[in-house]
């Protein structure tokens, strides 16, 4: 079974309160090296067999039509998930 | 005069919206998300709640419900449509209204009696108000921060399409204090606060919400 990975991130000019909340909490764990945190979304779509160009085209359509809102988010990548999980 | 109210899985305020329509003198018609039919209604309310658990993004999944396949072209054709809270989010996700609603800057759920300024009375849902009037209605959400790019914001302001603005401090970081907007034609209106909770004595802070529903009854009657 193949997988397509879609990554969606909030646009840089849009405030990301979730990322800010995380950035505010990390120092409490003694993790204080990071100037900023932004939180996005990853979608993993499974297909029977290997991922084809048609699968990727449909995944891009899904990313644009439903999985992201272009007003506030960018589709960062739509790609095949390699067998080693990368 | 029939006004439909859509129920999605997770809608909460559909029954209050139907009640408000009846209090205003209209016939309330329940519309089901899975039924691709508007049943001949003269206007539609997309109510508040948490459709599909707010999964993905607020309103993002409801926007693809079968009933929306009928509502979107009808709204583009001039049918009066009001989106309240989650309904506003659904209308933005449907691209019937510009912009998007995002989490509040402080990540908290907010519940208060909110003062709003009526900025436009030339919509199907606000004609019974006095322009510039201040009204007090229930306001309750976690993701009501209105955002849009600068060009869109300037366009909304320039065309008089900002319908409501928050008064007495911006409760959620909405750009330019915007609480509600309309489309170019003025038939589609969305806002985060809840006029349908403010139509009867003994409930809510005022009766200031009733004029939404009397406005649309007048508009739908073509008076």
From TrEMBL, chain A:
One of its GO terms (molecular function) is ATP binding. Pathway: Purine metabolism; IMP biosynthesis via de novo pathway; 5-amino-1-(5-phospho-D-ribosyl)imidazole from N(2)-formyl-N(1)-(5-phospho-D-ribosyl)glycinamide: step 1/2. Gene3D superfamilies: Phosphoribosylformylglycinamidine synthase subunit PurS. It catalyses: N(2)-formyl-N(1)-(5-phospho-beta-D-ribosyl)glycinamide + L-glutamine + ATP + H2O = 2-formamido-N(1)-(5-O-phospho-beta-D-ribosyl)acetamidine + L-glutamate + ADP + phosphate + H(+). InterPro entries: PurS (IPR003850), PurS-like_sf (IPR036604). The keyword Protease does not apply. GO terms for cellular component: cytoplasm. GO terms for biological process: 'de novo' IMP biosynthetic process. SUPFAM superfamilies: PurS-like. Keywords: ATP-binding, Cytoplasm, Ligase, Nucleotide-binding, Purine biosynthesis. Its EC number is 6.3.5.3. HAMAP family: PurS. Part of the phosphoribosylformylglycinamidine synthase complex involved in the purines biosynthetic pathway. Catalyzes the ATP-dependent conversion of formylglycinamide ribonucleotide (FGAR) and glutamine to yield formylglycinamidine ribonucleotide (FGAM) and glutamate. The FGAM synthase complex is composed of three subunits. PurQ produces an ammonia molecule by converting glutamine to glutamate. PurL transfers the ammonia molecule to FGAR to form FGAM in an ATP-dependent manner. Belongs to the PurS family. This is Phosphoribosylformylglycinamidine synthase subunit PurS. The gene is purS.
TrEMBL record, chain B:
The gene is purQ. Keywords: ATP-binding, Cytoplasm, Glutamine amidotransferase, Hydrolase, Ligase, Nucleotide-binding, Purine biosynthesis. It is found in: Cytoplasm. PANTHER family: PHOSPHORIBOSYLFORMYLGLYCINAMIDINE SYNTHASE SUBUNIT PURQ. GO terms for biological process: 'de novo' IMP biosynthetic process. One of its GO terms (cellular component) is cytoplasm. Pathway: Purine metabolism; IMP biosynthesis via de novo pathway; 5-amino-1-(5-phospho-D-ribosyl)imidazole from N(2)-formyl-N(1)-(5-phospho-D-ribosyl)glycinamide: step 1/2. This is Phosphoribosylformylglycinamidine synthase subunit PurQ. Part of the phosphoribosylformylglycinamidine synthase complex involved in the purines biosynthetic pathway. Catalyzes the ATP-dependent conversion of formylglycinamide ribonucleotide (FGAR) and glutamine to yield formylglycinamidine ribonucleotide (FGAM) and glutamate. The FGAM synthase complex is composed of three subunits. PurQ produces an ammonia molecule by converting glutamine to glutamate. PurL transfers the ammonia molecule to FGAR to form FGAM in an ATP-dependent manner. Its EC number is 6.3.5.3, 3.5.1.2. It comes from Leekyejoonella antrihumi. It catalyses: L-glutamine + H2O = L-glutamate + NH4(+); N(2)-formyl-N(1)-(5-phospho-beta-D-ribosyl)glycinamide + L-glutamine + ATP + H2O = 2-formamido-N(1)-(5-O-phospho-beta-D-ribosyl)acetamidine + L-glutamate + ADP + phosphate + H(+).
């Amino acid at each position: 079974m193949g997988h397509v990975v879609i990554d969606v991130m909030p646009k840089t000019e849009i405030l990301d309160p979730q990322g800010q909340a995380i950035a505010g909490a990390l120092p409490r764990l003694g993790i204080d090296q990071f100037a900023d945190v932004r939180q996005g979304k990853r979608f993993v779509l499974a297909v029977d067999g290997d991922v084809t160009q048609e699968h990727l085209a449909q995944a891009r359509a899904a990313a644009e039509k439903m999985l992201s809102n272009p007003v506030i988010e960018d589709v960062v990548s739509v790609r095949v998930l390699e067998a080693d999980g990368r | 005069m029939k006004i439909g109210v859509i129920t999605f899985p997770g809608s909460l305020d559909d029954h209050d919206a139907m009640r408000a329509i009846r209090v205003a003198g209209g016939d309330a018609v329940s519309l089901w998300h899975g039924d691709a039919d508007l049943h001949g209604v003269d206007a539609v309310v997309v109510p508040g709640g948490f459709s599909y658990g707010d999964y993905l993004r607020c309103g993002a999944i409801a926007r693809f419900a079968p009933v929306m396949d009928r509502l979107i072209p009808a709204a583009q054709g001039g049918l009066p449509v009001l989106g309240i809270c989650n309904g506003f989010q659904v209308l933005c996700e449907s691209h019937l209204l510009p912009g998007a609603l995002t989490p509040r800057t402080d990540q908290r759920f907010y519940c208060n009696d909110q003062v709003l300024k009526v900025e436009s009375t030339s919509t199907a849902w606000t004609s019974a108000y006095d322009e510039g009037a201040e009204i007090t209605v229930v306001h309750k959400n976690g993701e009501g921060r209105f955002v849009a790019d600068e060009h869109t914001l300037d366009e909304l302001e320039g065309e008089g399409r900002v319908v409501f603005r928050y008064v007495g401090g911006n409760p959620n970081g909405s750009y330019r204090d915007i609480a509600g907007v309309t489309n170019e034609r003025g038939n589609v209106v969305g806002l985060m606060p809840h006029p349908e909770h403010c139509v009867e004595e003994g409930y809510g802070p005022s009766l200031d919400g009733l004029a939404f529903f009397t406005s649309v009854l007048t508009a739908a009657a073509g008076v």
